[in-house]
Amino acid sequence: MKTKCLITSLSLVALIFSACRNTDKVNSGVTDSSIDQTMTDTTAINRGADADDFMKTAALAGIMEVELGKIAQQNASSSRIKKFGEKMVKDHTKIAADLKVLADSKKVTLPTSLPAADSKHVEEMKKMTGAAFDKHYMGMMVKDHVKALDLFKSAAVSGDVKIRNFASKTLRTLERHFKEAGDINADASY
Predict the structure, then answer these.
(1) 56 CB contacts (<8 Å, ≥6 apart)?
(2) In angstroms, rounded to a whole number, what is the distance separating the alpha carbons of residues 31 and 124?
(3) Quick check: helix, strand or coil at residue 1?
(4) Is the dihedral of CA 55, 56, 61, 67 positive or negative?
């Protein structure tokens, strides 16, 4: 009886070792570059590590959108751009309020003002008017929304359910903003 158990155990161990060696053959054709191309984004936020960085970055982007939207309502020459600026103020104020609730629930303090370089840029844009402002503002809106979409898409696959839900919900609004900014930018004759 002991011999049968010993033979069975040894056979099982041999099968396990054999199976382990066969995976090397299966994976031998896979290179690091092919893994890089097929793996999804694995930034820290996807593992839930930098949720507070996401919220702080999103807050700063939102502050910038609101500030520039206010300026657009005053300095743009196009009524379409003025309306877009109004939409930015309205939508990003709502997003900021939702983000604040989320941050408070996670005990994260969000920034309430822009860094010095961004504040300087806002001040420079206040001096711009007409077609020069329209071109600069709409070009910036396209670029800023590309960055925002990347940020929120990464957060939408976060390990944190609340952040994932907030990011997914906000993405729809940001995608509309990006499309509209691109349309305005493409139609404009500066």
Answers:
(1) 108, 110, 111
(2) 49
(3) coil
(4) positive
All structural domains of the chain with their residue ranges: 47-187
Tokens representing 182 are 């691109």
139 Cβ contact list (under 8 Å, min separation 6): 185
Q: 56, exposed or middle or buried, with CB in 10 Å at 0-12, 13-18, 19+?
A: middle
pLDDT at 102: 97
| Tokens read off for 160 | 């944190």
Homologous superfamily, domain 47-187 = Ferritin, core subunit, four-helix bundle (1.20.1260.10)
pLDDT tens digits, 144-161: 999 999 999 999 998 899
Q: Residue 129: helix, strand or coil by DSSP?
A: coil
CA distance 61 to 78: 24
**Residue 52 burial by CB count (10 A; 0-12/13-18/19+): exposed, middle or buried?**
middle
Pure H helices in the chain: 2-27, 32-38, 51-75, 79-105, 116-126, 130-155, 161-187
In this structure, are residues 150 and 179 in contact, taking their beta carbons and an 8 Å threshold?
no
Report pLDDT digits (tens) over 98-143: 999 999 999 999 999 999 999 999 999 999 999 999 999 999 999 9
